[in-house]
Amino acid sequence: RRRHSFPTRRSSDLNVRVLEMEGLGPSKLVGMILADHGAQVTLIGNAIGGTESIQTPETNNMDRGKKSIMLNLKAEAHKTVFEKLLKQTDIILDSYLPTAMAKLGYP
Question: For residues 17 and 89, is the Cβ–Cβ distance under 8 A?
Answer without folding.
Answer: yes
